[in-house]
Design goal:
It is a single chain. With 302 residues, the protein is of the alpha/beta class. The chain has a single domain, classed as Spore Coat Polysaccharide Biosynthesis Protein SpsA, Chain A. Strands 1, 2, 3, 4, 5, 6, 7, 8, 9 and 10 form a 10-stranded mixed sheet that branches. It is globular. The N and C termini lie far apart (58 Å). 45% of the residues are buried.
Length: 302
């Protein structure tokens, strides 16, 4: 039986939502914990993995040596949309003074993401801190999966990159996700690892529970826009840390459901169409060598 330390309250609660991700979730969880995460103390954060109704309840096993020890919890009343599981975990499980949401448990974290999240919050008390998203493979997965990209191809790609021993390898085998395609220098549409102080979360709220469709539809875009466009917003973008999406037959990235369906749900909730957010941001560096190719994107475009 694992005993979870209650010695002191963590600064950051990392909440990761999974559903039928026996292949992908172990990589994501590894990437969220030490020793993969660098320049951070395991005592400064906790990792909560919410299993949102997987066909077989997810178990990481007892042989892993991660720190902090991930807390794997099954959602009591799972819904097709992950927003309920994420909100439940934030309200009832998270102990941190700050909360990080990762709506898609198939997204591997870069190896300094936690450390730089904490640095950003230490520098600015009211900050909303976010990362950009990438897809593994040579193209966004809505396109690459049609051309033969699949889990087997991806497994070989990851192994050949040297990951996880060579954490920078994922940057070389990835492209920006569509929602981050404008690069660092233009407003993006969503982040798959973002964090905020608990008091800010309590004030602006979690995920909107009107998004009931499988996968959550545009819920991640809505919460991102709500936070980055709040009055007197202080937004911080991590300049070198990202998430890397593994192919897993997800609702959006597999193309199973097209954007018009998501847009219709958004319209039914708010009575207006979704609009890409416009906002200002501060960047937290340094720009590491592995991220340089991404930093060039959008620099010369008008």
């Amino acid at each position: 039986m694992r005993i979870f330390s209650r010695k002191r309250r963590p600064i950051l609660s990392v909440i990761i939502c999974i559903h039928d991700m026996n292949r992908e979730a172990p990589r994501t969880i590894l990437s969220a914990c030490c020793p993969y995460q660098k320049d951070v103390s395991p005592e400064d954060y906790e990792v909560i993995v919410v299993d949102n109704g997987s066909t077989s309840p997810f178990s990481l096993g007892d042989e892993v040596n991660f720190s902090p020890i991930p807390r794997i919890v099954s959602m009591p009343n799972p819904q097709p949309s992950p927003v309920f599981a994420l909100n439940w975990a934030a309200m009832h499980l998270a102990r941190g003074t700050h909360v990080l949401f990762a709506i898609d448990g198939a997204r591997i974290f870069s190896d300094q993401l936690i450390a730089n999240m904490l640095k950003a919050h230490a520098a600015c008390a009211d900050a909303f801190v976010y990362t950009l998203g990438c897809h593994l493979g040579s193209d966004v997965q809505m396109v690459s999966t049609i051309q033969g990209y699949n889990q087997e191809v991806e497994d070989k790609l990851i192994a050949d990159s040297g990951w996880p021993a060579r954490s920078a390898g994922l940057y070389n085998i990835s492209v920006f996700a569509g929602s981050s395609s404008g690069g660092f220098w233009r407003p993006i549409q969503e982040s798959n690892a973002f964090s905020m102080p608990r008091r800010l979360l309590d004030g602006l709220g979690g995920y909107h529970t009107g998004f009931t469709s499988p996968g959550g539809g545009l819920a991640n875009l809505e919460i991102f826009a709500r936070y980055v466009q709040r009055p007197n917003a202080k937004n911080i973008c991590l300049l070198s840390d990202m998430t890397f999406h593994q192919v897993h037959g997800g609702i959006a990235t597999s193309g199973k459901v097209q954007y018009p369906t998501f847009a219709e749900e958004y319209l039914s909730i708010f009575g207006r169409e979704y609009v890409r957010p416009s906002f200002d941001t501060i960047y937290l560096g340094p720009l590491r060598a592995e991220a340089a190719k991404f930093a060039k994107i959008g620099l010369c475009e008008s």
